[in-house]
Amino acid sequence: MTSYTADLHIHSRYSRATSKNLSIPHLAAWAGVKGLDVLTTGDFTHPGWLQEIEDTLEENGDGLLRLKDSSCLSSEMPWLEGRDRPQAPLFILGTEISSIYKSQGTVRKVHNLVFFSSLDKVRTFNRRLSHVGNLESDGRPILGLDSRDLLEMVLQTDPLGFLIPAHIWTPWFSLFGSKSGFNRLCDCFRDLSNHIFALETGLSSDPDMNWLWSDLDAYTLVSNSDAHSGEKLAREANVLAGQPGYENILQALQRTSSTQPFLGTIEFFPQEGKYHLDGHRKCGVVLDPRETAKLRGICPVCGEKLTVGVLNRVLALADRNTPQQPQTAPGFTSLIPLSEVISEILDKGPKTKAVNAVYARLIKAFGSELQVLRHTPVEDLKTESPALAEGIDRMRRQEVFRKSGFDGEFGQISVFSPEERKAFTQGQSLWPAPQPSPPIAPCRTETKQGPEKAGEKPTGPEKLNTEQMQAVQSGPHPILVLAGPGTGKTKTLIGRVHHLIGQGLDPADILVVTFTRAAARELRERLQGRFSADQGLPRADTLHALAFEQWRRRHGHPPVLMSEQDARQIFALANPELSARELNTAWDRLARVRESGHIPPELQPCLQAFSAYKAAYNLTDYTDLLHNWLQKLG
User: Fold this and answer.
1) What average pLDDT values come out for the chain (634 residues) when binned by 10 residues?
2) Which residues 6+ apart lie within 8 Å of 283 measured at CB?
3) What is the pLDDT of residue 453?
4) Which of 89, 347, 502, 589 holds its CA 20 to 30 A away from the CA of 163?
5) Residue 583: left if φ>0, alpha if ψ -120 to 50, beta else—which one?
6) Helix residue ranges per DSSP H, 367-506
């Protein structure tokens, strides 16, 4: 079944806080880079943007629009010179409208997306809307128009027109937002509620969260980028079956097409959204809903009301304890923007030249960002960077570290642990630069090895020098080997394993420990290359992975592993009597002494409170994992 990808919520340069580079050709070029097939025009209510739409696009005959001249796309992306020009996207006429009005005795602020099937319908709609408010002040007009009346105007203008409530959980300006939203969809759209068939989940929620509330089961959940620049396109998007066309899209969203259905969404990890958790950005306070309830919605630092986030609001309206995917609902895929993955690997900002250079190289090599993130085989990615391949593989398996956004501050999703990133910055090769084909080396005399049968794994140790062989054959007492980079430490370790097995030791009794997951994976691969399957393989893993497994065995369930920032926040919540300065001092001192086990008396009360809080919520940090394992060994 063929499919295509659509982003149905973006903005033009006429909207506030948007890139001044935004033009129709610029958006079309970025759509190709991202891997989008259909893009909304956005902002068609603004006279200046509508004029550009009419100048650069033409109707396609199926309710969508196409570029009049696609030859200009290459000039929009000079940094991709030499790349094959992708097919230009199609456009659907859509815009976002901000409604601020009073309903049921409360001021409501709701954003809605509206779509039309032709330019004539758009012009008619704009004329009617111009009598309600000023359409020239902003690409996303702010109008004193009831959402129900806006929907009626859409339906009266175009029988094929439709409305989708935008980012329905955002605290401000949304259908269910905690600040000015409704508790039920029918309270907003009243007698026209049956004309709503799709809802936009927004960056801070995903379908799983929405499936906690049975009232939403009947609606198609869509996701869009809400992009204010070309670079942000496709951070969320929709996947549909069949061929693009206005009525095909409409029927897919209405769930009335069996041949060209809606296939699901491409999502942010919701924790990356800037309103996922509760908190106060200016005070550096971030809380989950339970903590907010304990504090009665008041910031523990300044005493003002907290900004209640999306997760809290979802749980307030939910009638399920766990998500239940409706039988008719498709699934979804959570991704991390490619520039963020590269940024993490290079330890440089996502907008730096270094990150942009690698991004361009990947687009040239594999076609588009969504192709890299979703479809390119991991083995192919390894040809560009083993670190990239590992990061993308983890993302696809949802093995990520989550730092949640709150009160307007975006969260952060990482694929490598702090320890792994630290190892990266200490000189390990992360992103080898592309090398030209090496010249043919002159002949040299080498020690000949005996021929191996095709497909047979070598059974002897790799060739070792004198010092390496000494390390391999020493013992049985403990051995400490000190060696610098590039001296063959891993080869020596593999040789040691081979030597021990040759001495009669059972491979199941050998544990090979390393610091990072990437190094552990490399060790496993090299062990598999040296030993046959019927021999059995020693286990190769990280200290923290082993400690995590021991915790699960000891307690009967896995813990919730916190990032350093999460742990610091929990420490603050567990010790509310300490000032900000005292908290920072105590935390820094504890970080230095916890591993030794010798805790100064003055720090013991705050550590005990911290430990009790973690125990109550099944939380742990990396130091706890190792302490738990040491207790088990003791």
Assistant:
1) 92 96 97 98 98 98 96 86 82 98 96 99 98 95 97 99 98 94 98 98 96 97 98 97 96 92 95 94 91 91 93 95 92 96 92 94 94 94 91 92 93 87 57 40 34 42 80 84 78 86 84 78 76 72 80 74 74 82 85 79 90 81 79 70
2) 299, 301, 302
3) 38
4) 89
5) alpha
6) 369-370, 378-382, 386-396, 418-425, 466-473, 489-502
> What does the block give as tokens for 520?
């552990």
Supply the DSSP symbol for 372.
Answer: I
Q: How far apart are the C-alpha atoms of 199 and 113, rounded to whole Å?
A: 10
Question: Would you state the torsion angle of the CA atoms of residues 366, 368, 373, 376, taken in this order, to the nearest 10 degrees?
Answer: -30
AA letter at 264:
G
- DSSP H or E segment with residue 607: helix 604-616
Of 148, 149, 109, 111, residue with least CA distance to 131: 149
Name residue 286's amino acid. Answer: V
- H helix or E strand, kind and range, residue 248: helix 246-254
Query: Residue 497's pLDDT is what?
Result: 86
Sign of the CA dihedral running 415, 417, 420, 421: positive
Determine the pLDDT at residue 63.
98
In whole angstroms, give the CA distance from residue 426 to residue 411: 26
Q: Which two tokens stand for residue 237?
A: 């998007």
Distance CA(504)–CA(470), nearest Å, equals: 19
What mean pLDDT, rounded, does the chain reach?
87
Q: Where are the beta strands (DSSP E) in 448-593?
A: 511-514, 539-542, 560-561
Residues 6+ apart with CB under 8 A from 230: 19, 21, 22, 26, 27, 29, 30, 33
Token pair for 107: 């001021």
Q: Supply the angle between the helices 24-34 and 47-56 in degrees, to the nearest 10.
A: 70
Contacts of 200 (CB under 8 A, 6+ apart): 9, 113, 164, 165, 166, 167, 168, 221, 222, 223, 224
pLDDT on residue 485: 66
Q: Helices 564-574 and 580-593 sit at what angle, rounded to 10 degrees?
A: 120
* Residues whose CB falls within 8 Å of the CB of residue 627, separated by 6 or more in sequence, listed in order: 594, 597
Q: What residue spans of 101-169 are helical by DSSP H?
A: 119-130, 147-157
Distances (CA, A) of 324 to 236, 288, 398, 584: 22, 22, 19, 42
Q: What is the pLDDT of residue 426?
A: 55
Q: Which of 606, 542, 619 is nearest to 574 (CA)?
A: 606
Helix (H, G, I), strand (E, B) or coil at 247: helix
Q: What is the pLDDT of residue 433?
A: 42
CATH number of this structure's domain 466-546: 3.40.50.300
- Cα distance between residue 550 and residue 620, in whole Å: 13
- Three-state SS sequence of 84-106: CCCCCCEEEEEEEEEEEEEECCE
Alpha helices in 20-90 (DSSP H): 24-34, 47-56, 73-76
The enclosing H or E element of 605 equals helix 604-616
Where does residue 6 rank: exposed (0-12), middle (13-18), buried (19+ CB within 10 A)? buried
- Give the domain ranges of the chain: 3-335, 337-432, 466-546, 559-633
The residues facing 285 across adjacent strands are 280
Half-sphere exposure of 152 (CA within 13 A, CB side): 10
State whether residue 559 is helix, strand or coil: coil
